[in-house]
Amino acid sequence: METISHRTGVSRQTLYRRWPHKWALILDAFAEHADKLPALPDTGHLRGDLTELLEYTITTLNGICGATNRVLVTEGLQDDTVMAELREGHFARRRAQIESLVARAQERGETVSLELDVFIGLLLGPLWHRLIFGHAPLTRSLAPGFVRSVSTFLHQERSREQS
Prior knowledge:
Layout: H1 2-8, H2 12-18, H3 22-34, H4 46-61, H5 64-78, H6 80-107, H7 116-133, H8 143-162
């Protein structure tokens, strides 16, 4: 906070009045940057929309945004307040994007029958696993396979339920 105060000319007291701790300030700045994402893709079908969204997300996570996410998640695992702010102020927006794409697909008449919460977890989980643990590269070329795998899995589950 001292560095920010010095660089901006804003007193630390003023900063702390607005942000109770440095992580609140960082999350706020991060959320502001995240709000500048481009419009949601509209390819005419859900698979295409999700693939483009994941490709963009992967590209973003391979930059400073991914490094910042790792730091914020690390801090959030040690501080419930930071995690709650991260979840409610950032992750909720990403989930809402996918919910919007699914709703739009349903409005177009695509048959989309799924447990949305599970679907979003299955779709985003592999990205976060690679980002956080770094066990394998996170590349744009993975997006179509992630979407195809999740779609196939959900289709197989529906088929089993109907049998």
